[in-house]
Amino acid sequence: MKRTYAVVVPILLIACAATRPVQDLAAGERPALDSDEAGLWMWSDHWEEDLSTSGLVVSDPGLNAYVREVACRVAQDYCGDIRVYVLEIPHFNASVYPNGMMVVWTGLLLRVQNEAQLAAVLGHEIAHYQRRHSITGWRDARNKAAMFTWGQILLYASGVPGAPLIDLAGQIAFFGSIFKFSRDHEREADRLGLELMAAAGYDPAEAPVIWEALIEEQEAEDESQPFIFISTHPHSDERAATLKQLAAEHRSATNADVTEQGRYVEQLLPLRGTLLEDELAQRRFPSTDLILERLRQTNAAPGEIEFFQGELYRLRGDSGDAERAGEHYRRALTLGGAPAEAYRSLGLVSRRVGDDAGACDAFRRYLELEPEADDRAMIEAFLAMRP
Ligand SMILES: [Zn+2]
Predict the structure, then answer these.
(1) Which span out of 94-98, 142-146, 152-156 was modeled with the highest average pLDDT?
(2) Number of domains into which the chain is organized
(3) What whole-number distance in Å separates Cα of residue 180 and Cα of residue 346?
(4) What is the CA(272)–ligand 1 centre distance, in A?
(5) Which residue, 254, 270, 292, sits at the end of a domain?
(6) Where are the beta strands (DSSP E) in the chain?
(7) pTM, whole model, 2 decimals?
(8) Domain range spanning residue 46?
(9) Helix or strand or coil: residue 19?
(10) 253 CA → ligand 1 middle, Å
(11) Residue 135, domain member (yes or no)
């Protein structure tokens, strides 16, 4: 979508206004029209318009409504100021924009284990919004004479002719790296986020669990490829420890103990298979292995989990992986929730280990269950070559 210079020029001019102290945003408050903050909001409104109509927003109305409901419960009086979009991107990330637009990536939903953990992340982002951290960040950047960078950002944001064209996913990563809050802002958002979740009745002890799980994943993966959220939200063992201590204080003060794991698992389940497919396509096998182990413990649709464990081995393809995959597919098919594709995958790994008879049986079963399968012709051709 092409926009005009009109948005860019006022923001650049307004950005030269004097720095003012920042107070919390009140519920329902909008920045004064002649402020630099209004410029940031205007940019965010345009960005929201593009994002909300993009194909990245998860179309499942149930899941969107659920995440919004949790956000509202945590945001309380600010519920009407926050708009949440769930984006189908297989990384752990959540962010809030100056105008109250909040985005949650599906990679986060797959890693979070219960509603309280989701509430912790949403509370952290709502805190950034209430404390107006983005305008402080903007003014700091300006004071550091980073206007060249900001000018470039506005070019990106405006769709000015001649500005570099980058796709939506690239823009998301780009803006995410620009709206990097300071360590002090992060600490403040952690603290206020905990207060918000506990006030809504959620167990604050669940907040550090997310960080511990992410650190575990990071350690299992190649350190040179940090997760996006971790690269924009500095993490450390010290941070997890601080959260743990804060959580203990809040918990004893509020008795908040709601986790709502069952409800969370149930809400995610219709989309879980798609999200695991997205995750596996990233080929971060050690990390996916940890995710599957956590999901297995919820005991929801165990056949689906075993199927994806098999897929992990089939796609990784190390020595012995075809045999391992076959075991998981066979187990998946004895449990509830395995998709018909488990038979197709079993056929593929059976072929790989030279078991043609087993492969034929599995493929036939797959076609019985999925008569309209896209790959029917290919599979029938394979079957026709066998006695
Ligand atoms: Zn943050």
Answers:
(1) 94-98
(2) 2
(3) 45
(4) 26
(5) 254
(6) 83-87, 94-96, 101-105
(7) 0.85
(8) 5-254
(9) coil
(10) 24
(11) yes
